[in-house]
Input
Amino acid sequence: MSPSEPGTAYVLKMYPRFSETFIVSEILAREAAGDRIEIFSLLPPNDPRFHSELARVQAPVTYIDRPLKTSDLWECFHAAGAAGLTGALGRNFAELSAAAPDDAVRAINLAVALQHRNIRHMHVHFASGATSVARLASAITGIPYSFTAHAVDIFHDSVNSEDLRIKLEQAHHAVTISHFNLRYLRRRFPAATARLHLVRNGLDLDRFPYRDPRPLGTAVRIAAVGRLVEKKGFQHLLPAAAELLDAGFRLDLRIAGTGVLAEELEATIERLGLGDHVRLIGAQTQDQVHELLDASDIFIAPCVVAADGNADGMPTVLLEAMAAGVPCISTAVTGIPEVVRNGSTGILAQPANPHFLARAIQKMSSPGTDRVAMTRNARALIEQDFDVRRQAELLRSLALAERRVA
Amino acid sequence: MHVAYICADPGVPVFGTKGSSVHVQEIVRAWRVAGANVTVYCSRLGTDRPDDLDDLDVVEVQPDSVPGPAREQALEDAALALVDQVLRQGCGLVYERYSLFSPALSVLARVLDIPSVLEVNAPLIEEQQKYRELLDVRKAETVLRRNAGTADVVACVSEPVVRWVHARVPRARTLLAPNGVNTERITARRHGRKNPDHLTVAFVGTLKPWHGVPDLLQAVALANSTAPGPSRRWAVRIIGDGPGRMELEQLAGSLRVETEFIGAVRPADVPALLHECDAAAAPYPAEEEGRDDYFSPLKVYEYMAAAMPIIASSVGQIPSILEDRRTGILVPPSEPAALAAALTRVAGDPALREDLGSRAREEAEKRFSWNGVLSRITAALPVPRQAAWP
Output
């Protein structure tokens, strides 16, 4: 790809990040569609594990550092001057000085890095910090920005309403990943959401071939995947498993992922005497997750709204399980009911209720439930609404569209 | 069973005094009588909560008040916010009172895979275009198509409404479910005449041209002109208010018909006001060419429950409600002379008055209670599927 082709900058808080596979899928799909992409990451990766798809990304990565000493800070200003940005910095001084110091300096460094790179547009994932930096860099360079609002970046208690409103207002456009989010943001910011669109996270469907679920064996194999944090709801899954085991239901539950609740969950497993049937198997690569799904009879995503307002938007692994033909159970949290339709594409349960989770598992395992019909419906829905190639086209066309006056 | 009752029309306050508000409350009561646990999800709560619904769970999401097309979008958004609430709380059945911009039923029934009922009371799309303003006609049509196409039962208040739904959504599973009456709230009047020196005929309703009140006044004047004595003469009591009131007052004066204008009252006060009368009238005028009378005459059911002798025009749904000379007296519409003859007959026959009244009451209990209306609707539902949550 020739650098003379105007490109799109992806501004990311940390790249690569193990849990954000949807961003890698999106970049790959855009590259496949002919977009020239460059990645600008505000932090170096902190996790040595990589998914194999990363190797296919062509986009160069530039890390935007921040100075630790005053003299280094002055180096930033010199670099900005050398890049011809002195006037632009001056015009935006008030905005920069009002911003968080790290964001402001990163914005200057990003602006410098973007000069002479033939970048036409910036796209950012998550409306939080990375979008703050891109917004300021956009003010300095005049390069328009857009962002994808997911969930933590709009629902968490710490989200500053006024800050989010300004980001929406100044963006060339914004996208979000579910009807639920779209409605929520429109209600909260009626005047700033005229250029907000629904673009779902995409899946590379070729990587998730479908097969019908296999007949159940003596023990029902259940998989759950996600970071071990409150919003994933695994703390409700353990008592559900205990209830089922007490009732004589045979199951083998594996929970993949790491996180702050690891110890607490281990302790619960021990306390409830679940050790023979429930295992925390730690973080898994994409391939290992594939294998886990392939060997499971049920996938469960027992998401909840956390005490701080944080909630999952649309767990990627849930979509992957639905694509691959694993019968899925999830909960009515934010956008999830838009994909898990009770009785049709899976079973939807009320959040934060172990007893209902147990009944959902029982129901999904009962001979009267047409698991094959459910997984085929689920696959059809994923193909229709979550094909990454289609999402990449949407993102591309939104960036090309003339900016409408709000 | 947990029922989510959705009323996303801000023009229909759940706890209001309008006929539509009463309708919502009565269906909710009927669900509770049937043993359901009901949560109402609405766009406007209202302020007149009846005592017996004190413990009813109600979730209100008010639409943003914005002008023009944004208003219609805001109505849809508010309905979808109600959907989010239902999804959080779960339910075993969704019952939605049709409103122009709420896609709630089609979303919930699909996502939760639960039985659903859409209640349609009027051809709102045309009504809105004619009397108010409808900007996004296509959206309104899409909403109706999706909701009526999804619902297991589309309960229509009259035959014209059934035809209207079918014309737009041919595959809709419609059911004719006319209005009903709460025979416990509206009790029977006591036997015997109320005044030795005259009789009183009551009218309940809004004073608008399509209720035919002028015909009633004309008929009373005619009947009184041939009455053998004062005790067989009629006075009129009008319970209700509306744009036609001034003209009616003038007309009553010029005809020298003694008429009492009570004005608008709370639904709870209607029975006692009816009980002080000797008969009740529903003098609907003749249908115009091209106009379909799609309403289901709530007042007629109320007269029946109050055990009134009823004189009503033979139009629209009325012949299917009242049987002539058994539970009421039917007269040709827009013919004051025929109405006068009926009044004269009723005035001269105390036994007829009592018979008509008590048979009407019996019929209301047997055929027209809200509990009966609801049980016809639920009988048409498919075999209960799993409730969400499992």
